[in-house]
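Annotators were shown the component list below and the corresponding predicted structure, then asked to write short factual statements about the assembly.
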Amino acid sequence: MTLTDWTVVLPVALALGGTALCAVFWWRPVIQSAIGIVITLLMLVSAGVLVCTVATEGPQTMAMSGWPGPFGIVFAVDLLGAGLAFVTALVGLLILIYNFGDQSSDYRRVGYTPLLLAMLAGVSGAFLTGDIFNLYVWFEVLIIGSFGLLILGGKKAQLDGAIKYATLNLLATTFFLIATGLLYGLTGTLNMADLASKVAAVDNRALVNVVAALYLLAFGMKAAAFPLFFWLPASYHTPKPGVSAVFAGLLTKVGVYALYRVFTLIFPASDTIFADLLIWIAGATILAGGLGAIAQTDIRRLVAFTVVGGIGYMLVGLALQSPLALTGGLFYIFHSMLISTALFLAVGIAGRLGGSYDIAKLGGLYRARPAFAMMFLVVLFAVAGVPPFSGFWPKVVLVQASLAADAPWLAGVILVGGFLTLVAVARAFAAAFWDNGEEEPPRATHYGDRVGALMLPTLVIIGLSVLMGLAAEPVVQLAGQAAAGLSDPSAYIEAVLGGSE
Amino acid sequence: MIAIAVLSGFVLAVFAPFVHRLTKPLSGWVLAALPAAIFFYFVQMMPQIAHGETVRAAWDWVPSFGVTLSFYVDGLSLIFALLISGIGAFIVAYAGGYLKGHKDHGRFMGFILAFMGSMLGLVLADNLITLFVFWELTSITSFLLIGFNHDKPRSRRAAIQALVVTGGGGLALLGGLLLLGVAGGSFELSELLASGSIAENPYYLPIFLLVLAGAFTKSAQVPFHFWLPNAMEAPTPVSAYLHSATMVKAGVYLLARMNPILGGTDIWELVLPVFGGITLLTGTLLGLRQTDVKQILAYTTVASLGLLVMLIGIGTDVAITAAVLYLISHALFKGGLFMVAGSIDHSTGTRETVRLSGLGKVMPLTALAGLLAGLSMMGIWPFFGFIAKEVIYEATLHHDPRMWITAVAIIGNSLMLAAAALVGLRPFFGKLLQTPKEPHEGSPSLWLGALTLGVLGVVFGMMSHFSGEYLVAPMASAIGGRDIHTALHLWPEVSLPLALSGVTIFLGFIWFWQIDHLRSLLYAATQRLWGPDHGSDQFLAALVRVSKNLTGLLQTGRLNFYITFTLTMLALTLGIPVIAYGLLPTSIVLPDVALHIYGVFGLTVVGALALLFARSRLQAILSMGVTGFSVALIFLIFGAPDLAFTQFMVETLSVVIIALVLLRLPVDTYDRRDFLPSLRDAGLAISIGVAFTSIMMAIGAEPLDLTLTEYFAANSYLEAHGRNIVNVILVDFRALDTLGEIAVVLVAGLAALALIKVRDGILTSPDANRVTREDEA
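Structure shown to annotators:
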């Protein structure tokens, strides 16, 4: 085994080790931060190497404790998983930098870094594992980590949000666990590559469909899809913006990833009723996100609803399952991970400048901070899918795929969803940035201490998003290659089970 | 080279604020060098294009999706590019003078240049997606420019309104373009144009309607006209450039571009002239109602766009020639008149026609520019506008229903003539009136552009042979998709069109003479009328209200509701397939086991029932414990001692912990619940329970795959060196799961620690509670 082979498991191992190390240095927040930065940097490097390896050599696997699949737990990474793990590490690193400016050292004293690393371990593990029960374990890790992050600060609103978040997410993971139990009873295996053929061989399709429906419910809820998205807008606006940012960027995508994996590999949606069901869910999620965003008066809640709407676009890709649609859906996932994070980071800066997150109270930031205002506008347009920013390309592709799939109404829903988001963000920008209110001269705004730590990650991530829009081709190629791996998982299955049979 | 011409605008836009700071008093002239250079670049292409050649240049952009950064120069796009860059140069210079001393001057210059790049890209794009990208960029830059005076609520409202209308239309257009690409078999306009009409395609109608939605919103056709007059909140250079000479013509450009592909059908020749005609009359009538010079100009712009749409809809050779003539002359005179209006505003401090008079003496050059532009707009010989008007009548007279179309054109043109006189002539003649500021002639940047455009209006008219050869014919041929070469005559023949011109001028002067009566009449007629302008506010308000109500249905803020709803979804997810697939067990066979086992099963039921009817919390916890322990007993009896021990531990701990927690809460409270919610919850619980049981039984009836079990049994002792298979699975076969669960326990501990410390008040920094508490919903 060379070092590159280890990259399959390194992101998780690093994050878990980092968590433990931070626990050792519990009273030394500075050391914890340093550990966090180093760990996420290493995660980024190893995930980057992994992406390159997978892109050139195909899916990579590693059998835990040396027990081959399907008997032991196998980590199995295709391009989708590797790409997601890479973005996870990137977002984690940027968030840690951001929090140097965002939080007082008190915050870090109460365990910010170890909790974040634990969550990153859970997220990366979910993207990298090839075993469905192990996936459940990583879900638990990420939920408990995120719950810890959510309550840091201990404001009443936070506890309210955290309890809703934890209760509903634990319900969803319980559904996931039950579904996995049933699936094991039906097939006698937990290895996802093995499940692909075992599930296909089950004669009683009724039972297969029941289990698949339960998975759809569980992962759909994790992904914040209609109609079970309420836990997200109920909680995402309560913690510090740096925490909201990492949640918005990563957590729902784990649910979406699980849906993509399960409904392409184990229950290919194209030959079940789930394709139709997913289309409806996707369309409704897009509209619910758009309408929800328009209804908000708190800019963080507005952003939370745009995250919900984004889930709908990703599900369109899964529902249609054509290579074009999958490419669009995957592109959207990567776009959304960056832009949702960027939105909350920028919202955090706006909140610090304006002293509020209430759209009506913010006001006047355009006059006071024109450069920041333009930056913010770019993010808003990107999330609304306005060209030439990154949200535009997946939208075009998904509209095309809908038309090709003879679902013009779905194309219409995608476009209307974009329109609703555009209305929401334009109104918010005009009110929060243009409107100077009654104050004359306009109020003083201060970035406060350590603004560089806030600005650097925000700029990096916005820059990446803009680059993704202007030079979309490399991302499209990667998304296309990943989509091809989903459409035809034979290489993935071969990589996992090839050795044992 | 074309790409540089298009994209350089964006590059300079980024640096414009710096350039402005460095070259302050002259920044307008300095920055105008770029549009001027672009203009001359396109000028040198004129002979080539006039000879019927086209130029295409393409670079890969997103080749996987078939998107190329491709540009296509033919007669249509070239003339547009010339107008955009030529007028753009004057506008940039003009803005340098107009906004002198404004605090955001540099930013403004950046926006204007970015707009110019977007607009050039729009008209030159060959790829449909690229065209759309630039189309949206013009909407964005327009949004920023209309909202430039962002302190004013009216500006913000106008900016949002324009973005909502044009952005909404843009999304329809995107749908239309994507369908067109599929239906026409190519995303390159040049190829689509070469393969001709797609009228026979089954997608024709949706494509037509969607493209129309894009074009009509952008080019302010009734009923989407309202955003354009409101957009006059922008500084005058913006009004002159975006909202009269260039951007609002994007819709007209699109229709002209699509004419060979979508035109010539019955519905095209019906819808375009009808909407165009209505827009022409609405625009002129609403325009004469106004007293603000910019408002009058804005409404006549709406009217002119209607006229252009009408002519394109007619689609004959003469009509297309008329559209081209009018489009060019309109860009010249309207751009000029807006700049004149801005100069007057700048120098006198007012734009009210009733207060503007006799300015010719103090502002002679501005007056000359206004006169030239005004006369061209009125269609007086020998201006370019005159030739345009002659050809318009020739076109309307040769298309059925000719009476109607011609009548609409005459009324529209005569009203437009009155408006032109009101704006271009009246302020400069008569007695000088008192104005808020002392009127004075502005700097050259403020009159040079308008004057040049005005002079061009005469020159193009006088040199009708030249303009016909190099401007009109190439553009008309490109629009028609065939060779269109209509001879232009400076000296009119004595014919019906000439007579109609006479009628138009006569009528126009009557309107002008009676303008005050006409205005009060129009005002009285329309002031109580509901209009789409008001309607757009109502639409937005309704949208917000509906959004709030719909979102509130699900986002109630109550955890109780969330849980109930989630469990209802679970019941449906399981119940529907259970019933649909008939998984409900048909008969229940009691297993043949010893009596004491029935006793254990009975105990679980007793515990559950006791929980339901518990009178106090403590009783409830203990009942739950009974169920838990009896389940553990079942595990024990059926040969899973490890599981049973775990269950015993968990149950003991849960009961102890919950009891400890209850020490701090009132133990004896009886949680009374109403009957209906109880019934609802009971229904949920029973249906979920029945469904799960049915599914479990059905799965139990399936053959069990024992591959893994056999492997574990075979390897547990020999390979992993453990006799207890469950233990070996936990610590070896599936050790990673255990590691993960340990991590969960660790992190849960950390989170609890964090929570306790936070509660103890370690976090006392003022930052912690700076943002006021906001509960959900």
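Statements collected:
1. Confidence is low (pLDDT under 50) at residues 761-775 of chain B.
2. Residues 153-184 of chain B form the longest helix (32 residues).
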